[in-house]
Structures are given as structure tokens and as C-alpha cells.
Amino acid sequence: MTEVAPGPASPVAHLELKVAMLLLLMLLLVGGSVVYVMYARGAFEATQQLVLVADDSEGVKVGMDMTFSGFPIGRVQRIELDPEGNARIIIDVPQRDAHWLRESSVFTLVHGMLGNTNIRAFSGILTDPPLPDGAVRKALVGDATAEIPRLVSAARDLVQNLTALSAPDSPLNASLANLQATTEKLKGPRGALGVLLGNEKDAGKLLAALDHTNTLLARVDGVVAKADSQVFGADGVMSETHAAIVQLNAMLGEARETLKRVDAVLQEAQGTASNVRVATTDLGALRAEVEVSLRKVEHLVDEVNRKWPFARDTELKLP
Fold it and tell me: What pLDDT is recorded for position 310?
């Protein structure tokens, strides 16, 4: 059986056209992807520029975000030096997020302890005028690692002070020892009195003086009670004086009546000049009655002075 040799393959129709179309499709896909990425990154979005001036731009990179309350509202486009040697950080802020930036806004450039750098914006008063396009602001630089040497130095000083305080010969240990000794004295038989006086001898003297004072006070209380009984008791001086005063009031009433009668007789004597002898006889009798009443009063006053030792001397004169 004889073999038949294969013939040439039939050519593809319009091969060059198809290859060209495939290449064009690939270019369109790549171009569309690039355009989409640029759109997604805000390349076609309206923006305004913000220039932050800092002493250095260490850690700042092109493309890093500027955040407000944790949300990115701007992106670093480029970094350059100004004529004074300061770093100028140009940031593009989309127009839709520009309303968060105000004239009173504060911008910080913070270097973290792990080497990361953050640009943050703070707007305390959102009613202030909005930040204009191309505004230049000073960035406040904060470096957390710059505080580490100071913290280490402060910690070293603190450890040294604690070591000095806890040393065996430190004033704190001496004060604690004295406090312990004082506590032991407070637990002793004399208690706080022994701590105040400092020795047992003086504390004993003070306690003895207090006991003697208590004894004297007890005696004084007894004397006062006895005096009160003698003066204000049922048979005391005050009761007898009260009775004497009652009698004196009665006698003074009799004397007052007698004097009234004398006054009446005197008036009759002045009106009746013809009966002088009779008026004189009546006056003699009345004067005798007055003298008797006055003697009773004088006797009663003497009795009061005898029973009431605090009374003053009283002089009684006849009219």
C-alpha cells in the first residue's frame, strides 16, 4: 500500500487583519486599565494645593496621605526646598474634602517611634473661613523618639532617688524606726502620756497630781453640798430669813398705819387751834405707839443680821 504525502496547510483568511485587531484590543484594555487606575486615584478630580513648610521632610514620601480625623483628605505630590533651606511639602486636596480645612486649621508632622511619619490636619472651628487654594502653613513637627532620652534620664533620676530613700542610713528609715518606737510606747502602760512626757517618772508625777486633784474636787463637792444644805435647806438660813422678812413686812405695815394716823392727827391739830391740849395728848399716845413699832422693827432687823451673815449694817433713824 503506497503512502500519500500530506499537502500544504490551507492559509488563514485575513490573518494580518485579525492580528492587528487583537493588538488593538490589547492596547485598548491596557489603556482603559491605566485610565481607570488614574481615575480611581483621583487623577481627574479637581483639587487645590496646600503647602506645608517644615524644618525637614524626614520620613515624608511622595504619595503619602494627609489625614483628618483618621481619613485621608490629601496626598503629597512633591517635596522641594525653599530659598531659606526649609522643606516645602506640596499636597493636593480634592475639592470635595477641602471644606474640612479652615483658616484656623493646624497641621502636624509627627515622627513615630517605629520610624513612620504622619501628616495630620486639625480644624477646631469649622465655621471659620475655608482655606484658600495655594495656602502656605507652618507644619508643627513632633518627634516621639526625641522624648526617649529625656524619659530615660528622668527614670534614672527616679531610680537614684528611690535608692537613696531605701538606703539603711536614709532619713526615711530613721523616721520609720522612730515611728515604730513611738508605737511601742503607745502600747505601753502609760500610753500617749508616756510618749508626750518622754519618761515614766514624769508620767507618774502627772498621774499622781491628777489623782490628788480629783480628791480635792471631791472634797470641794462635799463642802458645796453641805453649804447648799445649810443655806437653802428646809432648816437653813434662807428659810429663817424668809420668815423674818415676812414678820418685818407685817411690822412695817403696822408702822405705816400708825404713821398714817399721826398724819391725820397732825392735820386735825393744824385745823383745830383751840383744842391744842387734846391734840397734844393724842400725839403723845401715837408717838408711844410709833416707838413700840420701831423697837419691834429694830429687833427684827437685828435678828435678820444675826441669821444672815452677808447683810450690811443698817441704821434706823426716827422721823
Answer: 47
